Amino acid sequence: MTAYEAAILDVDGTIVRGEELLPGAIDGLRALEAVGCSRLLFSNNPTRGADHYREKLTPHGIDVDPATVLTSATVSAAYLAATHPDERVFLVGDGRLEAILEDAAVELTSDPDAAEVVLGSFDRGFSFETLWDSLRALEGGVPFYGTDPDATIPIDEGEIPGTGAILAAMETVAGREPDAILGKPSSVAATAAMDRLDAAPSNTLVVGDRLNTDIALGNRAGMETALVLTGVTDRAALAESSIEPDHVLESLAGVETLL
Fold first, then answer.
1. Rounded Cα distance, 15 and 228, in Å
2. 205-237 pLDDT tens trace
3. Is pLDDT of 153 > 90?
4. Taking the CB of the first residue and of the last residue of the chain, which one, N or C, has fewer CB atoms within 10 A?
5. Ordered DSSP codes for 12-65
6. Whole-number Å distance between alpha carbons of 85 and 104
7. pLDDT at 125
8. pLDDT (0 to 100) of residue 239
9. How far is CA 47 from the centre of its chain?
10. Do 92 and 130 form a contact (C-beta atoms < 8 A)?
11. How far, in Å, CA of 77 to CA of 97, rounded?
């Protein structure tokens, strides 16, 4: 028997880094499966949907049902479709995020003067012109959201700038912070996750490598939390942080000691 009915698992930095499977990932997933703990994968990647993670993890022998995967992109799309129907969204973001939003029937506009909502996210093509357009779009106090707060994204070669860096530039020129972040660690993200799991927050374990997203999500929602040291957070960063996990694991394999 285990105290947990469900587990919310981060992906990048917890199960994989770039295209490489992290040590201990398979052992951790098998341990959760052995005790009948339901699993939800939750990535703050704002450029991918659920199908991507099935394709990404299947070659590593990890079977993924897209219904058990959330990303900051899919959560953002669902939230905007539900709360801002028929409102024009000005997107600073990746083309793949644009497609996910359109699939959710979110109306997009490339005209900053027509914006009724602004969504900031990861954008490889971010430029002075993009920043200028976002400044125009944010005039008049329109609702302003971000997909996620991640300042960097781990890749095989190291890290690249992420959504948090883009949002910082948008915030600076507009003189205002986003009204909400829609991915982890927000209440929007926590609600989306619990809607997919048949478990109470108190019986749910969150495992991830980022203190300000994975661990903060669990702490805010009343879930138990475990930090893995296979991603962006090391023990020195943990010692300096005000965000404290319930458990610290060398890798996902260590989850077996909690079950």
1. 10
2. 999 999 999 999 999 999 999 999 999 899 999
3. no
4. N
5. BTTTEETTEEPTTHHHHHHHHHHTT-EEEEEE--TT--HHHHHHHHGGGT----
6. 10
7. 95
8. 96
9. 10
10. yes
11. 9
The whole-angstrom separation of Cα 97 and Cα 104 is: 11
Residues 182 and 150: beta-carbon distance below 8 Å? no
Alpha-carbon distance of 81 to 96, in angstroms, equals: 17
The amino acid occupying position 35 is: V
Cα 178–chain centre separation: 16
pLDDT in tens, 42-54: 999 999 999 999 9
pLDDT of residue 152: 85
- pLDDT mean over 84-93: 97
Rounded distance between C-alpha atoms, residue 11 and residue 133, angstroms: 33
CA 199 to chain centre: 20
Q: Are 5 and 39 in contact (CB under 8 A)?
A: no
The predicted pLDDT at position 19 comes to 84
Banded model confidence at residue 158, pLDDT cuts 50, 70, 90: confident
Residue 47, burial from CB neighbour count under 10 angstroms (0-12, 13-18, 19+): buried
